[in-house]
Amino acid sequence: MQKQPCPVWNTLREGSVDKKDVARHDTISTTASGFVDGGISKRYGEAEYPTIHTAKRGIEEDPEDFGTQGKVNRLKKDATEKGTKRYRGQRAYRLFLQVYQLILWKQCYALIHERGFPSQTEEVVRDLWALRLDTFSEKLAGPAESTGDEPEVFSSQPSAPETEDDEAFKLSHRRTTWPRLIDSVGLCYLGALLLRLPVTIADMHRMIMREEIPFIRIIKSIPREMRDKLPQTYLSILETKTITKAEQLHHAVRELVFLYDREFGVVFPPLNAPLILFKYIKYLALPVEVYPAVKRLQGLLGFTYTFPTNGKVKRRCLHLPEVQMISVIVVATKLYFPFDNVKRYPTSAKEPAAQVIDWKVWGQAQRQFDNRETAGGRIGKGNEIMVNEKDVLNMTENQLDEYMDWYENSWLDSNNAQNQLAEMFPLGRTGLESQPSAISQPDIDDDEATAAKLETVMSQMKPRRAISEEDALKLPGEVPRPGSSYQRYRRESDLPETARMFYEAAAKVAGISLPNLIRAVHQTELKLERWQESKRRMEYYGGLQDEEFTKGADDEMEVDEQGVQDF
């Protein structure tokens, strides 16, 4: 006898089995007389279903429907929509590019109408995207339809989960064929760079984290008609699987610069150095005297604040223009306002080093500036995505409400919801919960907070007594001058507490990690040391050329392999 698995079984006291009912419904009503040469087995097989032992004739239909009593009511199921057919092959390619173009438009719209970017930003980004589309012409050439059952997998799709230490968007030796989601933000940054706007990588990353431009959960803003027709392979490209770091955006912009230079010969201008340099100095609450010192050191080091276009050279973080600028700022700060307690006396009261920064006051002002958005027991805009399961256990009631509001707005998709049970549990706050919390405070403007921090630090600066050269000759011993006993830090453990706070703030404003900033500053100091040695040789021999200085500085950095890490 053959065993056949069955769906749900419902045994009644009386009744017969109709073949039509068996074919149309998942429930079967049976009686002891409803089987010919067979019966119901109480034994369950491996599939956890009861089985029917029948003869060759199987189940017979009772022509007179004898013995049927009562009425059978069957629950009608709600009609469900048929699944939309997904595109394949080149139709899917075209639709993916259209979706990506829509994302670019949404980001430009947010930058122009919400962040105050000029209207030309959309035109510049559109032209950059038009050039990028030319690289897909071979892929899109040919008939619009494809007989392939599955979409083609492209090189930007990860083949295996990456660890936290790996770069989430690392490119292989073969150039990426299809655009990545982070490239859209990179194109917006390059558009601002072409317009000479004082916008930094850290600014773009902050707008991403605060969701001031569409990026996180961008798939939610795509129309459902387009989303349902895209294969899952393409949808995964537009999903944010990990928290995007500012260093990944640095990497994406650099790869885009390589691409446009190699394919189209596009040359991007250097950073708008005066405005961005002033922005960095103001954010770090440094005296304005640092500005000319940075300009002087830039000329000595040969930094141009431009993205490298030679993809064959070894890539270091110091090759990035914003990293070059912040490294020079750190060096100039250490020369004028060192972090130790050694007293250094300038020769004149007009020198920048004639005033001293109280680094304890600076650290307190910086902590107050960093905690301005979490004051009053708030999570802080842009910090919601960083919340983990441990943080939830320590949250207050208002913080939970704030987090759930963010989660509802960012991750839940209420479109096309047909579940009647879900309508009984509406989303969002209702009644008294919809009123703002008593502890909620209006967001403090960043410019006002920066100005308050700068005023606090500048008001606590102390003067340093000046000792002229003539007076120094009268004193026993050598008088320590500004720049003497210069401290260099090669690793994070070497930083004193005051220097660590400043390095962390500088790394944040540049959009890089603290270890990478330490390495970049150390490489800058090596270049300056090499320049100082070459200057001494020129005084004695007068034959050392600038090209030899540059080559020697690169060789020195090659020797310093410890801690050197590429992006």
The DSSP helix count reads: 20
Strand portion, in percent?
under 5%
Overall number of strands = 4
Biggest sheet strand order reads 1-2
What's the rounded overall pLDDT mean? 76
Distance between the termini: 68 Å
Roughly how many Å is the radius of gyration? 34 Å
Structural class: mainly alpha
How helical, in percent, are the residues? Answer: 40-55%
Report the biggest beta sheet as strand number plus sense, adding barrel if it closes.
2 strands, antiparallel
The helix/strand series, from N terminus to C terminus, equals HEEHHHHHHHHHHHEHHHHEHHHH
Tell me, briefly, the overall form: globular
Can you tell me the residue ranges where pLDDT is under 50 for at least 5 consecutive residues? 1-58, 144-176, 434-442, 549-567
Pfam family, one: Rrn7_cyclin_N
Protein name: Pol I core factor CF
GO biological process, one term: nucleolar large rRNA transcription by RNA polymerase I
Keywords: DNA-binding, Metal-binding, Nucleus, Transcription, Transcription regulation, Zinc, Zinc-finger
Q: What are the defining features of this structure?
A:
two-stranded antiparallel ribbon; 567 residues; Pol I core factor CF; zinc; zinc ion binding; mainly alpha; Rrn7_cyclin_C; RNA polymerase I core promoter sequence-specific DNA binding
